[in-house]
Design brief:
This protein is an alpha/beta fold and 266 residues long. It is 37% helix and 21% strand.
């Protein structure tokens, strides 16, 4: 099984790791390693950088779809903290004894939106039976993988609830993460996409053309927990920092809703 150091080297080489500050190619063993849902990148990069400036301690963050990250943890990847974009993959981690259940809490909420390239003339009223297929004009709808990526699962659930899934299910461009779906639209490769509100806010090349009603999909909740194998004393400190005023401000700047320890909007 790969060692902690070799796993980190692989992540950096694959371009999956983002670092706070200037780090060597493979992070030091005492750095806090966070595996986080791709949609968290902008906010969490800010928070990790701020924590390093305040404490002098380093954070390495690997971003990908939640399903990919928890499977990497299951295979021995050396994460200290896991932040999922849905409850299902955190539940999977708990069932597989990959996290410390007493450290788990619901951290953030988000909204699901329909996006188009910034110069698109499309506008949509998202309601039961709306003609999404016509809005695509022969193009494809970019989404995270609808069977695994949280944003894709939420999106499919919403389209099914609205009664329009069958009209577009053969027109889906499925991506490995929500940020990959965002790029399809940002680059003009897809005329429409379903992403989180926070993803849309992070990319100036797209615009929101509709917001999905919250009652059409399960609540979008980001849980966080320490991993079972983490022995890094700084991991708990960074987990606590994620609920600090500085972290809250960073999350809210990106459009997240910060949840209280009980999972309620605070």
């Amino acid at each position: 099984m790969p060692t902690r150091r070799s796993w980190l080297a692989l992540l950096v080489a694959a371009g999956l790791a983002s670092t706070a500050g200037s780090l060597p190619a493979a992070a030091q063993g005492k750095d806090v390693v966070v595996f986080a849902a791709a949609s968290l990148k902008n906010a969490l990069d800010d928070i990790a950088g701020q924590w390093q400036r305040e404490t002098g301690k380093k954070v390495v963050v690997s971003y990908a779809a939640s399903n990919t990250l928890i499977k990497q943890i299951e295979q021995g990847a050396p994460a200290d903290i896991f932040i999922s974009a849905d409850l299902d993959w955190m539940d999977y981690g708990q069932q597989k004894d990959l996290i410390k259940p007493d450290s788990r809490s619901n951290l953030l909420g988000n909204r699901l939106v329909l996006i188009a390239p910034k110069d698109s003339s499309v506008s949509a009223i998202i309601q039961p039976g709306f003609d999404l297929a016509a809005l695509l004009k022969g193009g494809r709808l970019a989404m995270g993988n609808v069977d695994a990526v949280p944003a894709g699962k939420y999106g499919k659930a919403s389209l099914e609830k609205l009664g329009v899934w069958d009209s577009v299910k053969d027109k889906i461009a499925q991506a490995e993460s929500v940020r990959a779906a965002l790029l399809f639209v940002s680059r003009g490769e897809a005329p429409l996409g379903i992403v989180y509100q926070t993803d849309a806010a992070a990319d100036p090349n797209v615009k929101i053309v509709g917001t999905f009603p919250e009652n059409t999909h399960p609540p979008i909740i980001y849980p966080v927990a320490l991993t079972k194998e983490s022995t890094n004393a700084d991991a708990q400190a960074f987990l606590n920092y994620l609920r600090s005023p500085a972290a809250r401000a960073a999350f809210e700047r990106q459009g997240f809703t910060v949840l209280g320890p009980g999972g309620q909007r605070s």
